[in-house]
Amino acid sequence: MTWLWSNLDLVGELSLVHLALSVPAIILSFVVSVPIGWLAHRYRWSRGVLLTLCGLLYAIPSLALLIALPVFTGLGVRSPVNLVVALTLYGIAVIVRTAADAFDAIDRDVRQSATAVGYSGFGRFRAVELPLAGPVLLSGLRVVIVSTVSLATIGAVIGVPSLGSLFTDGFQRGIQAEIATGIVATIVLALLLDQLAVLAGRLLMPWTRLGPGRRAGSAVEGARP
Amino acid sequence: MIEFRGVSKRFPDGTLAVSGVDIVIPPRKTTVLVGSSGSGKTTLLRMINRMVDATDGQVLIDGTDVSTLEPVALRRSIGYVMQNSGLLPHRKVIDNVATVPMLRGVRKREAHAAALELLDTVGLDRSLAGKYPSQLSGGQQQRVGVARGLAVDPNILLMDEPFGAVDPIVRSELQQELLRLQGELGKTVVFVTHDIDEAFLLGDQVVIMQQGGRISQAASPAEILANPADDFVADFVGADRGKRLLHLREVDGRQLVVDDDGRAAGVLAS
Q: Of A7, A9, A126, B95, which is most buried, counting CB atoms within 10 Å of its CB?
């Protein structure tokens, strides 16, 4: 614990850097995966190709990817942008199938009735399909959050600072407390972001919180407008 | 007035769902399409708002071929009520009712005010406006579905087995409510059901459909009972244990009406 207290500034700083790497990657992979998942859901023939290609991303060894990416991005090996791109690709691999499943899971009756009353095209996607896919999308996002925050530590190996730097530094200098701090801080950060996502889900999707116990009929009806 | 002229529908998989249908649906009356599953009644209904397009023939609304109309605008001008209410589970009751007017560009404040009045019209307490559909009973959800169908004050109201999923007591309540509403509003209602009793109760015109999407008979309930067009119709309308063949029997000095199986159906009014 003494190590932690005397290095609190460093841990705090690395946590922020770690956030700056993982949060953009999480958001990007979500934003990219939702339309891909929708396409895979909407056009059956594209499903196999899209989901397999995206899934294969996960099979690329991370070190190899981090070394190969600069060739495509034109940035130095130590640029954090490369790491964000790599994390985004892995994030897409993790969430895209869930995204397709999320759209598949929308009640057929609700979709048909939305069409019947005059929703169409993008309006139906935004107002009906996206919110109804929300709960499943959220569960996929939570997996991406945890996996991205933990995977971001790999940056330390190629010299991009993050909480992972605490492992590499701790190993090199033989400081057990530093390694332990790195692990615990990564987990805490992951759980924190995860709870943030859950909270955001509750605020954005209030209808998902209704338990069957609150049905009209069992509750006092019409007591309050 | 809605008119079907030689309308057929063959689905891409080869199934002939509707075959050579000619029928006139009179304005401001209730027409009930009735038949067992696979008789094409829902397909026929969905051709009116272009959820399904005919492969042959024409569907006309007030003389205009619907295939010349833009489907989305057409759907927004026709009320639609379906089984399990089809309400959007992520929208509050009031937003569900206000959906279509807002799609047509009515301001939220006006649409909500009108939606509250519609809750009155369909017999729902205004306190339900802020609830989500899952917090309502099946019967209440169905009423909200009807309110939504009426929200743009359409001339035509399409109802696809709207009361199919509620218990018999609530169903009977909803049927009476629909009769009352129709008496007040006088819409052109096209109603799909597989329940012949419901068809006879609600329909000014009853259209009996058989497998393969052909019309066996289209007439008033009284005409169908008096003159069934063929054996299929006779069997279909009397299918429930011959309960439509009623006899008189005297018991303890009173005239009882009994069905073919001898079950008491009622007492003859003196």
A: B95
Q: Which residues of chain A have pLDDT under 70?
A: 211-225
Please tell me what DSSP assigns to residue A159: T
Cβ separation of B75 and A132 shorter than 8 Å?
Answer: no
Mean predicted lDDT score pLDDT of chain B: 91
Q: Are strands B156-160 and B79-82 parallel, antiparallel or unpaired?
A: parallel
CB of B141 less than 8 A from some CB of A: no
Domain span at residue A165?
Answer: 8-206
In a domain, A128, yes or no: yes
pLDDT digits (tens, 9 = 90+) for B4-29: 999 999 999 989 999 999 999 999 99
User: What's CA B94's distance to the chain center, in Å?
Assistant: 23
- Show the tokens assigned to B75: 């759907």
A211 in a structural domain: no
Domain total of chain A: 1
> What are the residues of chain A with a beta carbon less than 8 Å away from any beta carbon of chain B?
107, 109-110, 112-120, 123, 128, 131-132, 134, 205-207, 210, 212, 214-217, 221-225
Residue range B2-242 forms a domain whose CATH class is alpha beta
**Count of C-beta atoms within a 10 Å radius of residue A187:** 14
B88, B120, B158, B160: best to mutate for the A interface, most A CBs within 10 A: B88
The ranges assigned to domains in chain B are 2-242, 243-270
Give residue for tokens 């209030």.
A206
Q: How many residues does chain B have?
A: 270
What is the predicted pLDDT for the residue at B247?
Answer: 79
In sequence order, the β-bridge partners of residue B209 are B215
CA A96 to chain B, closest CA, distance in angstroms equals: 23
How far CA B140 is from CA of B55, B130, B163, in Å, comes to 38, 13, 11
Q: Between A109, A115, A131, which is nearest B90 by CB? A: A131
Structure tokens that stand for A31 in this block: 């934003």
Sheet holding B156-160, edge to edge: B79-82, B156-160, B188-193, B30-34, B205-210, B214-219
Q: Which residues have a Cβ under 8 Å from the Cβ of B26 and sit 6 or more positions away?
A: B1, B188, B204, B205
pTM: 0.83
